[in-house]
Specification:
The complex is a heterodimer.
Chain A lengths: L1 H12 L1 H48 L4 H7 L2 E4 L19 E4 L16 H6 L4 H17 L2 H7 L2 H8 L3 H31 L3 H28 L3 H30 L5 H14 L5 H11 L15 H14 L1 H22 L3 H12 L4 H26 L7 H4 L13
Antiparallel strand pairs in A: 1-2
Helix pairs in contact in A: 2-5, 2-8, 5-8, 5-9, 5-10, 5-15, 8-9, 9-10, 9-15, 10-14, 11-13, 12-13
Chain B lengths: L1 H16 L1 H44 L6 H7 L1 E4 L13 H4 L2 E5 L2 E2 L21 H17 L4 H6 L1 H7 L4 H30 L3 H28 L3 H30 L5 H12 L14 H11 L11 H37 L5 H13 L3 H29 L2 H5 L5 H6 L20 H7 L1 H30 L1
Antiparallel strand pairs in B: 1-2, 2-3
């Protein structure tokens, strides 16, 4: 015990150690603070926009006298609320869409709309807790540990230590572990404060602590191994930096190139173009051309309404759906491709502790590709529910009335996103 | 002078002997080459695709059959932003903005499908463009290779031998600086090739390259300076590494976060909703009976001195569409400008803080020179909007003048009437060719003024600090 206290005092008196720890705690606090603020902003935004869209729908529906017009003018706000842990890992939330304004037109024309912020800021990259804990933490560890043995040797204490204590190596080991633990404490404390403020689940907080601990342990072992082989502090530091560089830059760059080469995805723009062509061409095609594929999908409406001559809403919505059907396979291929790329990246991340920490954290915070895709599916399900609600009025001869519109489905975020 | 070169070449010999420095430099060189090659090819392919798609979109639009003109307003058209030559080295905001816009009546769509939509997520450093390689990695490599340049000699006291042989400490510092500069020059070769092959205008290419040279010079002077000030290589490394983390990794991200907090910008959906509320007053251009158009009706009836809209020599529905598009566009533009102003304010906020970090200054200078900054993107948005308004109103003119009101009104009564309510496909020629080109070289260069100035300032300060450190070295020795 006395030894620990002595070592603690010794470590904290070292200006480099004290400064590194101070920087660690300040940066961690900054990321947690700005993350919490961002989540607050998102929640407030969701509330505000939801209200605006709801008001707008009420206003628009008041004027409508038929089912077609009602479906055309009624917009719905869909969104994936930030999880309680989203303050710690922004994940893909700044790049991929998590909110939409949807109506019952062809969905493929609406779902790729990305409501992103300032691209110059997105480009700089985010500074969230996950980035700090996964990618910066190793650098702080290198600063703390590369010089441990070299400093003793330089100050001529190494010979003394070895002579009197018998086991200088053990002393250095405990010193290194102590520094790692101090750093861990400095980083985790603001995070835990954030967890309390955001009422995130304790279980996921524990997992986050564990993966960060493992990341620290990895760099601790690597540092000790390197410094035990290399006498010169700077050389050891340069080697460790090389390892950091390989794991956080070279490997991801190579991995990304490889994954994107080996898993092709259809061009998103192609989906939009094809879908739009299909919808627009339908205006000039004989109605049967549109209604046939539609009735194949919906045999229940096949002998519902006679085809009239002029414009008819049900025909309009039939070709909206047929537009979606035309690109169904491409759209599925895109989603499958994105999922497969993500799976391949997960394998690559196994070879790099920082990447792994980043992935695990965004997984827990539900800001990863899987969460994005589940939101995407949630929107698709909601859109299908809209169609299921409107189609009986459009195709089945069910009477349109303000009363009937009270049953209009309202969007609820899917369970995995709340 | 001679002694400077001897010291520099000695330093090179030392690096080649110490495997670590050589390995780091070679690894970096390979990575840079890969990045230049991959990015150049990718952007060049993108350029070709987008140019081809642009031609195709124009051809498809003009070859549409006879239709009701308003159908073509909704049929719409695509415009693509073709990348500027230097985008091959610094794609800038390109992967984040989306590069195509769908133009249609009554709406301003945002650019769709950014490259990040389907890209593999591989952490913050995975998108290694040549620009980022030089902004982030080359300084790190220079640090790893050069942190001990002077301090190593000091620790081993070999500098005394040099001084006794008639070399001044300032010359030692100068020689080491030259050695590092030569290494940086070597690492710059891939970019030099990239710039030469990109086909950019000479002046702006030189400005682009020049800003990178000053930037690397800042780091070289910082490294040799820290190495001269610090008695031990380990201290020098600590100082340099901290500086690298603070200036290149932390500062830009913290400044970006601060910009987001200091200047909040509304999301697109919110802006859309604001527009919607404002548009309520304009009226729905599809519905000529909308009370908002009563004034228009009265004016037209008076102007043509007739009693009913049926008697008008022009198509009243077309006039409604045209007028409402005009009013609507004014509102859309007002909100779009507001949003763009917010984004520029955020960007300028970051730029103003570039005094704190040469990394921020260079990023901004580089994107400006390459024509891939936010202002260029905004110009694309404005030009796309002008193109949208022009073809939509061109179609509305056809609606007003070439389609009779009676045919228009009866279009839904029978198949025959449906067919009659059309205009000739000749009218689709209102669509102009859309070609986006970056700002002129002189315009871009003039926009780089502030950030290049910041870079020069940093270089001067670093040079000064290093020089004083070296002078101090000699005082210590003599004293």
């Amino acid at each position: 015990m006395d030894n620990i206290i002595r070592e603690l005092r010794f470590s904290l008196r070292d200006p480099v150690v004290a400064l590194t720890l101070l920087v660690g705690v300040l940066l961690s606090a900054f990321t947690v603070f700005s993350g919490l603020k961002e989540v607050d902003t998102e929640r407030a935004q969701i509330e505000r926009v939801k209200q605006m869209v709801d008001d707008d729908r009420t206003y628009a529906l008041a004027d409508q006298s038929d089912a077609g017009g009602a479906a055309y003018y009624a917009f719905h706000f869909t969104y994936a609320p930030p999880s309680d842990l989203a303050f710690a890992a922004r994940g893909v939330r700044d790049d991929l869409p998590w909110k939409h304004r949807i109506r019952m037109l062809a969905l493929e024309g609406q779902i790729y709309e990305t409501d992103a912020g300032n691209p110059e800021l997105s480009r700089i990259g985010k500074f969230d807790f996950a980035f700090f804990a996964a990618f910066l933490l190793p650098l702080l560890m290198i600063l703390l540990l590369h010089d441990l043995k070299a400093a003793e040797v330089r100050n001529n204490r190494w010979a003394f230590l070895s002579a009197t204590g018998g086991d200088g190596g053990r002393l250095l080991l405990s010193r290194a572990v102590l520094r790692a633990i101090l750093l861990f404490a400095c980083i985790i404390t603001p995070f835990l404060a954030g967890v309390i403020v955001s009422t995130a689940s304790l279980m996921s907080a524990v997992v986050v602590c564990a993966v960060i601990g493992l990341n620290l342990a990895f760099w601790l072992v690597l540092s000790l191994f390197t410094t035990s082989r290399i006498q010169s502090g700077p050389t050891a530091a340069a080697l460790l930096l090389g390892a950091w560089f390989t794991l956080t830059v070279a490997l991801p760059v190579g991995g990304k190139l490889m994954v994107e080469q080996s898993v092709p995805v259809p061009m998103g723009g192609e989906i939009l173009l094809t879908q739009r062509e299909a919808v627009n061409d339908a205006w000039d095609l004989p109605r049967e051309a549109t209604l046939k594929p539609f009735y194949e999908r919906h045999p229940e409406w096949a002998n519902a309404e006679p085809v009239s001559e002029g414009f008819d809403w049900y025909w309009y919505y039939a070709f909206q759906q047929v537009g979606d059907q035309t690109v169904e396979s491409m759209s599925e291929a895109l989603r499958d491709g994105v999922a497969e790329r993500d799976k391949a990246m997960a394998m690559i991340a196994l070879t790099s502790p920082p990447l792994l920490v980043d992935r695990v954290m965004s997984q827990l915070a539900m800001t990863d590709i899987a969460a994005f895709q589940s939101y995407d599916q949630c929107v698709r399900d909601f859109h299908a529910a809209l169609r299921a609600f409107h189609y009986p009025m459009l195709f089945g001869g069910k009477e349109y009335s303000a009363e009937a519109m009270k049953e209009l489905p309202t969007f609820r975020p899917c369970a995995s996103n709340s | 002078m001679q002694s400077l070169l001897i010291i520099a070449s000695d330093e090179w010999r030392y690096w080649s002997r110490s495997k670590l420095g050589a390995a780091a430099a070679i690894l970096a060189f390979i990575l840079i080459c890969v990045s230049v090659f991959a990015t150049t090819n990718q952007v060049a392919a993108e350029k070709e695709t987008r140019e081809a798609l642009q031609l195709k979109a124009e051809e498809i639009f003009r070859s549409q059959p006879d239709r009701h003109p308003h159908r073509m307003v909704h049929y719409g058209h695509y415009v693509f932003r073709t990348p500027a030559p230097l985008a091959k080295l610094d794609p800038g905001v390109d992967p984040y903005t989306g590069t195509a816009i769908f133009l249609e009546g009554h709406r301003q769509n945002s650019a769709t499908f950014s490259a990040s939509y389907d890209g593999a997520q591989a952490g913050p450093f995975a998108r290694l463009t040549p620009a980022l390689a030089y902004q982030l990695l080359v300084p790190l490599i220079l640090i790893i290779v050069g942190f001990g340049a002077v301090s190593r000699e000091r620790e081993a006291e070999t500098d005394r031998q040099l001084v006794t042989s008639g070399v001044t400490p300032v010359e030692i510092w100068g020689g080491k600086t030259i050695a590092l500069a030569a290494l940086a020059a070597l690492l710059l070769i891939p970019m030099l090739f990239g710039v030469a092959l990109s086909g950019g205008a000479p002046a702006v290419s030189a400005a682009f390259l020049g800003s990178y040279i000053i930037y690397l010079l800042i780091w070289i002077l910082m490294i040799s300076g820290a190495s001269a000030w610090c008695k031990r290589p380990s201290t020098a490394l600590l100082v340099l590494l901290s500086a690298w983390i603070a200036l290149s990794v932390l500062a830009p991200r913290m400044v970006a976060s601060a910009a987001n907090i200091a200047i909040p910008s509304a999301s697109q959906i919110e802006a859309d909703m604001d527009v919607l509320v404002a548009l309520r007053e304009v009226g729905d251009g599809h519905n000529a009976n909308d009370p908002a158009f009563a004034r228009l009706r009265a004016n037209l009836l008076e102007q043509y001195d007739v009693e009913t809209v049926e008697e008008l020599p022009i198509n009243f529905r077309g006039m409604v569409a045209k007028t409402s598009e005009e009013q609507l566009t004014a509102i859309l533009n007002e909100y779009a400008e507001k949003r763009m102003t917010q984004q520029v304010a955020q960007t300028d906020f970051v730029r103003a803080l570039s005094f704190f970090s040469p990394f921020i200054a260079l990023q901004s200078a580089s994107m400006t020179a390459a024509g891939t900054d936010i202002r260029t993107h905004h110009r694309f948005l404005r030009e796309a909007e002008a193109a949208r308004y022009e073809f939509v109103q061109g179609l509305n003119d056809a609606h007003v003048e070439k389609l009779s009101y009676a045919d228009d009104l009866n279009r839904n009564t029978s198949k025959e009437a449906w067919r009659k309510a059309r205009v000739s496909s000749e009218n689709w020629r209102v669509l102009q060719d859309f070609r986006f080109s970056p700002d002129t070289a002189s315009e871009r260069i003039s926009r780089m003024g502030l950030t290049v100035g910041v870079l020069f300032g940093w270089a001067l300060v670093m040079g000064g600090i290093g020089f004083i450190g070296a002078r101090r070295l000699s005082e210590v020795k003599n004293g």
